[in-house]
Amino acid sequence: MSTAPLDVIAIGNAIVDVIAAVDEAFLEAEGAPKGGMTLIDAGQANAVYERMGPAKESSGGSAANTAAGIASFGGQAGFVGRVRDDQLGQIFTHDIRAIGVSYETSPADHGMPTARCFIFVTPDAERTMMTFLGASTEITPEDLSADAISGAGIVYIEGYLWDAPPAKAAVMKAVEAARAGGRKVALSLSDSFCVERHRQEFRDLIAGHIDVLFANEDEIMALYETKSFAAAADSAAADVDIAALTRGAKGSVALGGGLRVESPPARVAKVVDTTGAGDLYAAGFLYGLSRGRSLADCARLGGLAAAEVISHFGARPEQSLADIARSHGL
């Protein structure tokens, strides 16, 4: 077990998710690439909200979801992300603290409103996102405490932060503080479109500063510009200590210390919504890593967390992940 005050501190976009079931025609009408994430502005966000049907609102954001998952396992998790002092900001702050995540970032009293992400789920359970990043893009190095960052066992960063220069500067401060404190740094590539936008910067960051890399099959192949998953996985293993790569229905592959562990997906009675699957896989993996578990156990914990979250709408666990892990001998 880590002796740090926090097992993991996650840094990312503080977002309120707006989740709705839609058909393929709706995605086409909105010009949203199925399975991807499109960035929109405030005007577009208001227009999309008016056109969509009934929705469920809940606090989200990739790294925040991961922190929520770690807390559900019983780990000590923190989150850094910026909201505005508006209604959505209050919802986000209440929700993340209520589930046991340490969240100390002060709300902004000026600037853009709190971010929201429209998540459209088609009948095949695939999720497509349109995101207004709002206040989350205005996080700055001043929002991060170097002591808090260096005190966490693992610093976990979501790749989406690279879309805003101030947020990127905040991430680099966190990386430097983690390095100074002898802590591990983990990165999620977030989205293949995000990789396309920032490929070279990501590759430089990964090769020079990242210990643990999370990516899905499309993202890792986009990063290394290859159509071969095996080749991309080998490249990742050469760049980082641990690469945790998810493959949807094919499970996951974890590489580290000369080992390659292939883990089948955990069983799910019915896939309802794939939102948050990668975020919760990272939660299980990081929780296991913080507890000194084997690569195989980390992958299994990630798979169990992902299976729980895709069995219902929403990107955060509804059952105790600690209970699920115990029921599987983990």
Question: Describe it for me?
Answer:
The structure is a single chain. This protein has a single domain (6-13, 62-111, 134-327), classed as 3-Layer(aba) Sandwich (UDP-N-acetylmuramoyl-L-alanine:D-glutamate ligase). The protein is 41% helix and 22% strand. It has 12 helices and 14 strands. It has helices at 24-30, 42-51, 62-73, 87-98, 146-151, 165-180, 192-209, 217-223, 229-239, 277-290, 295-309, 321-327; strands at 6-11, 15-21, 37-39, 56-60, 77-80, 102-103, 115-121, 127-132, 152-158, 184-188, 212-216, 242-246, 252-256, 259-263. It is globular and about 50 Å long.
Would you kindly provide a brief summary of this structure?
With 330 residues, the chain is an alpha/beta fold. Helix content is 41%, strand content 22%.
SSE map:
Layout: E1 6-11, E2 15-21, H1 24-30, E3 37-39, H2 42-51, E4 56-60, H3 62-73, E5 77-80, H4 87-98, E6 102-103, E7 115-121, E8 127-132, H5 146-151, E9 152-158, H6 165-180, E10 184-188, H7 192-209, E11 212-216, H8 217-223, H9 229-239, E12 242-246, E13 252-256, E14 259-263, H10 277-290, H11 295-309, H12 321-327
Helix pairs in contact: 3-10, 3-12, 7-8, 8-9, 10-11
Order of helices and strands: EEHEHEHEHEEEHEHEHEHHEEEHHH
Number of helices: 12
According to CATH, the homologous superfamily is: Ribokinase
Question: Measured on Cα atoms, how large is the radius of gyration?
Answer: 18 Å
Structural class: alpha/beta
Strand order of the largest sheet: 6-5-1-9-10-11-12-13-14
Q: In the CATH classification, which architecture applies?
A: 3-Layer(aba) Sandwich
Regarding quaternary structure, what we see is single chain
Mean pLDDT figure: 92
Q: How many structural domains can be distinguished in the coordinates?
A: 1
- CA-to-CA gap between the ends? 15 Å
Main sheet? 9 strands, mixed
Beta strand count: 14
Low-confidence stretches: none
